Amino acid sequence: MNAIRFTLFTLLLIPAFASAQDPPAPLRVSIGMAGFSYEGDFTYGEEKFRRFYPGTNFAIQFEGKKPLQLQVNAGFGKFREQSDDQFLLAADGVTPNTYVETSFFYTDLRLTLRLLKHSPVRPVLGAGLGMLNFNPRDQEGTFLGENIFSRLENEVYGTTALIIPLSAGLEMRLNRKISLGLAYIYRITASDYLDNVSALGLKQGNDALYNAQLSLNFTLGEQLAPKLPAPAQPPTWPEVAVSQPVADPADSLMQQEPDWMRLWAEEESGNVLNSVEPVETLPNPAEASPRPEVLLLEKPSTLAALAKTRKLDPEKLAAANPRLEGRLPAGTVVFIPGE
Length: 339
What we know:
Largest sheet: 8 strands, antiparallel, barrel
Order of helices and strands: HEEEEEEEEHHEHHE
Shape: rod-shaped
Strand content: 25-35%
Structural class: alpha+beta
Number of helices: 5
Radius of gyration: 52 Å
CATH class of the largest domain: Mainly Beta
Distance between the termini: 113 Å
């Protein structure tokens, strides 16, 4: 039950760890085949080659940019060992088991360090903390934990123990999404009963598990590009409306001085009497046409449009404003001839 709780706890850490990645990293899933063996009271004094028993390993982690990454591991395996009586201490009324077959399930949260980022072959180191659930049985398949005659009276143990996995290995990238891993993992356990023997064994200390592992790693999703700061935008200044210059009516009068204006100025100044021209050629002020209306345009227009709007003769309007052609800007002074 404790192993299941620890597994759920480690799985809940994955979303929290994913949110810490910036940018979000793709998920990497590993499936491995392992050969397990154990070190305990049944292997004490043995120098022969140890037997390895098959097992599996599953791992999940995020393919982040940083060399240190959290990895969740889970797997199962078993081992079998047999020992001679000479390696076990004798006790009255106790018959220790000389054969054990232990199946186990483990899960751990491991911090892995992957070196040589740009190398096709990368060394990988790891260490963590986990839980182990084990089940030792005899040759008949009977659970040894319930056999009180195989241990001393005060030897009562649980089948769940803490473990500290230590790993070292190599990882070879095959392509962008697949890599191959080879590792050796040594698991220190907090129990001396993986083989159901503790006080009557000659070996001091807790039992341990170790295994060689070959894994295939799959990267799910593409590596996202890091977030770049947005380019600085140039400051926006408020638009200032620039008004068109308004022509001075006096200037317009000076620029558009028609014949009638010249004649009127001469009449006012008394130059008419000094004119060398015959008197009859000068216009009679009493009979002269009425003074024109001075109009200041409030918006751009043309003489043709103004003549149509004011119902004027276009030719007379053009004659009264000989210097005005085309489109006239706002502020232009226009003389409107009288009837």
